[in-house]
Structure formats: structure tokens, C-alpha cells
Amino acid sequence: MRYLLSIGLLVLFVAAWQGVASLDSVDDLTLASPVETWDALRADWTLLRENALVTLWEVLLGLGIATVCAIALALAMHVIRPLRDAAYPLLVASQAIPIVVLAPIFVLAFDYGMGPILAIVALICFFPITVNLLDGLRSVEPELLKLMRSLGASRLRTLRSVELPSALPFLFSGLKVAATVSVIGAVFGEAAGADEGLGRLVLLGNNQLQTPRVYAGIVLLTLMAVALFVLVALVERVACPWNRKEETAW
């Protein structure tokens, strides 16, 4: 029933989109209808697919870099209290700088190509993963920590056996957010300086008044973000079977 409701809501959205786009007062250069978007997907499929693969590769690499760095920093901040006190404000401050400002700076620093795009994707994904994992490591029940100390467990053993398993659901929550916003980071990076990718294609289509192609690119970017979210959710179900909740039809 939940999936049927989601499909029904999507159908209503597409129908409303088609209805608004069909109004005489709406310019075709401003809003492409779902039919026009579908025609652009079919006509430009090869071009869209090739650029989508480039963007997907950038997203996966940037997300991987962010995940490794975020896990390392979160563990270090959890174990070393002075490091957490010193680094946490800087971590929060890093998110206050708009990406549109940082994108040209990264292009100047890393030159044109994949370097600045990976840096932007990693920066956007880094914060939610680090903060969620750190919160998970700090949310372990005190009784479990006392039990491990009473058994004479080392700090490393406690971290490996109790704190990390308890923090895994928090880590995947951060990964879900990061997987979604990583696509946004790739688009910003490609718009700032890239020769290929869906973000670059959408920007060029907008400048050339190819509105249906722009909407087709946006649809593919949306599907990419949803697919990454679903993939992380599936991995979470395998990695954290104890965190599953009973689901009803409603």
C-alpha cells in the first residue's frame, strides 16, 4: 500500500506538471512538459547516457573519498577529546561557506577536470557522515561501557565490539543524506569547470534554450540521487539486521 500511494502521488505530480505546461500562458522555453521531456530523453539518449556515466563516476569517487575521510576523523574525534573540542567548530564552519563560492576556488586550485569536482562532492558529503557517525559513537548506553570496563576490555576492544556496531545505523543515516546531496555537488562542480557531465550538459542546454534537454538531464540527476539512496538503504539492511523494524502495510 505504501508503494501504491507513492506511485499515485508521482502520477498526480506528472499530471499536474503536464497540465501546467499545457497552459497557453506558460512559455515552452520556461517549462517543458513531461511529453517533451520524454521525447528529449529518447532523442538525446546517447548523449545523456554518456554524460550521466561521467557524473555517476564523479559522484561515486567523491562519496568514497568523503566516507573514508569522515570515518577516520569521526573515530579520531571520538577517541581524542581535545581533538573533538578543537575540530568540531571548524567542521561546522566549513558548511557555512556557499558551494557556489568555493567551486571557482577549487577550479583555480585543482585546474579544470575531475579534481575540483571530486573536492566539491567530498566537501558536501563529508559533514553529514562525520556528524552522524560521531553522534552514534557518543550515544552508546553507559551500562554497556561500564560492562566492558568491568570485563577488563581495552579501549580498542570496546570501540570495535560495542561502539562501532551501535554507531552503524547513524553512519548509514549520514550516508543516505550524503548520497543524495552528492549529485548536487557534482552538478556545481561541472558547472564551475568541466568538459562533460550532466551538470555541464544541463548548463549548456539552458544557455542554448534547449529546455526539454535540460529537464531530461534533471530527471536523470533525480533518478541518480534516488538510486544512490536506495542502494545505501539496501546495504544498511544487510549490514545492520538488528536495526530493522517491523513494517505494516500502512
Q: How do the SSEs run, as a string of H and E?
A: HHHHHHHHHH
Mean pLDDT: 84
Largest sheet: none
Rounded Rg = 22 Å
The total strand number stands at 0
User: How widely separated are the two ends?
Assistant: 6 Å
Q: Helices and strands: which structural class? A: mainly alpha
Low-confidence stretches: 246-250
Shape: globular
Q: Report helical residue fraction.
A: over 70%
Compute the number of helices.
Answer: 10
Overall description:
The protein has 250 residues and is mostly helical. Helices cover 80% and strands 0% of the residues. The protein has helices at 2-21, 34-43, 45-79, 81-93, 99-110, 114-138, 142-150, 155-192, 198-207, 211-239. Helix 5 packs across helix 8. The radius of gyration is 22 Å and the shape is globular.
Write a concise keyword list for the protein shown above.
about 80% helix, disordered C terminus
Can I get a quick summary?
By secondary structure, the chain is mostly helical. It has helices at residues 2-21, 34-43, 45-79, 81-93, 99-110, 114-138, 142-150, 155-192, 198-207, 211-239.
Layout: helices, strands, pairs:
Layout: H1 2-21, H2 34-43, H3 45-79, H4 81-93, H5 99-110, H6 114-138, H7 142-150, H8 155-192, H9 198-207, H10 211-239
Helix pairs in contact: 2-10, 3-4, 3-6, 3-8, 5-6, 5-8, 6-8, 8-9, 8-10, 9-10
